[in-house]
Amino acid sequence: MPEGIEAIVADVGIGRCVHALTSVLVPRYARFAGETMSFTEEACIRSAAGSNGRCWRVLVSVRQQLAPQTVRIDQHGRPRHSGDYRHFVRRRTVLKLPLLLGTGLTLTQVPRAAAEQSRWSPDRANRWYQAQAWPVGANYITSNAINQLEMFQADTFDPRRIDAELGWARLHGLNTVRVFLHDQLWAQDSQGFQTRLAQFVTIAARHRIKPLFVIFDSCWDPFPKPGRQRAPRPGVHNSGWVQSPGAEHLDDLDYRRTLLNYVTGVLNQFRTDDRVLGWDLWNEPDNPARVYSRVERKDKQERVADLLSLAFGWARSVDPCQPLTSGVWDGEWGDSQRRSTITNIQLDNSDVVTFHCYDEPTAFEARIAELSPLGRPILCTEYLARTPGHTVDGVLALTTRHHRGAIN
């Protein structure tokens, strides 16, 4: 263990100590290529029984500076004050773990996709899907915003425009919208961001529209900056869209706590709120953003793969009533042996399967066939390319026939 981590754990049981270790200390202090660290009660029991003979006594301090006071906003926009982990480190009481566990906790290395152990069963996922109206909608950003930051920052958030535009969406039969968020909205003003997010969900619910929120995104500009956004460049597609997190934060271990708080804070706000359709944890995580290839990180995919697994784990810790997903968009999907590392993480951890496809109708239908053997609900969360004959009418006819959701 790194120096400076003392033996102090509150007397609240192993489970929460485990959560603090894996979510805060390990991401901050450890770098493991292709692996995350797991502190599990099962591992502790194996260690106490002496099954592997290599046990470490892990004495952990959940330092108060790692648990700053935060303000949580509930689903109705009301502030609730609490500490990240301080709420369960009330008394700096020494708990001698070896007395409870014999030889103490073991440090167990597990694959990146270990979060899949607690994902929904296919039966639960299908029961959830049957309880929803047929999901049909669009990716949505307010018409005056160039990107995620401009849509939700305090100076440019526009509830009246959102109300009008979602009203038009409902008038045309849409019942869901896919909406992109950003980690810097949380880092900049978490309380204000949650208040505005609560407003958005309330407005959407008024129109009987359920948002599917996107947490992270690997597409377009890798250098997002909060505050005033640049003006659009006429004729340039997505000229102001930004990645989340930005390139400088992909392996920034000090910033990782912000990412953790962002994921768990937003999901906790709506964890029991059925006005929200679900959580799309990462948009096209392995997209190389070729327009920005000169400035993209060369190790982007490796760093994103590590963070994607962590993001699923952080989201799982909240235990939301809505499903988690991350949409596949490229490469092989049907054969797990031929999938990319990131595609395997996505498909092995998603409660419901989502995908993107801009191909002609025959190829679109083939993509559905690739994913159908997984036995889970399937939603297409990006489509529409008129040049190859990929139209709203054509795609909706296909998704209706196959009982799949569609968001253009």
In short:
The protein is an alpha/beta fold and 408 residues long. It is built from 12 helices and 12 strands.
What structural keywords apply?
2 domains, two-stranded antiparallel ribbon, alpha/beta, globular, 408 residues, TIM Barrel
SSE blueprint and pairings:
Blueprint: H1 14-29, E1 35-38, H2 41-48, E2 69-73, E3 79-83, H3 97-101, E4 108-111, H4 122-130, E5 136-139, H5 148-152, H6 159-171, E6 176-180, H7 183-206, E7 210-217, H8 256-269, E8 278-283, H9 300-318, E9 324-325, H10 341-349, E10 353-356, H11 361-371, E11 378-382, H12 392-401, E12 405-407
Parallel strand pairs: 5-6, 5-12, 6-7, 7-8, 8-9, 10-11, 11-12
Antiparallel strand pairs: 1-4, 2-3
Helix pairs in contact: 6-7, 7-8, 8-9, 9-10
Describe this structure as you would to a colleague.
- The strands form 3 sheets. An 8-stranded parallel sheet has the order 9-8-7-6-5-12-11-10.
- With 408 residues, the chain is of the alpha/beta class.
- Mean pLDDT is 79; it is low at 1-71 and 81-116.
- It folds into 2 domains: 14-106, no CATH class; 113-407, TIM Barrel (Alpha-Beta Barrel), CATH 3.20.20.80.
- Helix 7 (183-206) runs parallel beside helix 8.
- The chain has 12 helices and 12 strands.
The total number of structural domains is: 2
Report the structural category.
Answer: alpha/beta
For this structure, what is the CATH homologous superfamily of the largest domain? Glycosidases
Distance between the termini: 48 Å
Indicate the proportion of strand residues: 5-15%
CATH topology of the largest domain: TIM Barrel
Helix-strand sequence: HEHEEHEHEHHEHEHEHEHEHEHE
Task: Give the strand order of the largest sheet, numbering strands 1, 2, ... along the chain.
Answer: 9-8-7-6-5-12-11-10
Helix content: 25-40%
- Estimate the global geometry from the Cα principal axes: globular
How many strands, which pairing sense, and closed or not: the largest β-sheet?
Answer: 8 strands, parallel
Overall pLDDT: 79
- Rg over alpha carbons: 22 Å
CATH architecture of the largest domain: Alpha-Beta Barrel
Number of helices: 12
CATH class of the largest domain: Alpha Beta
Unreliable residue stretches: 1-71, 81-116
The number of strands is 12
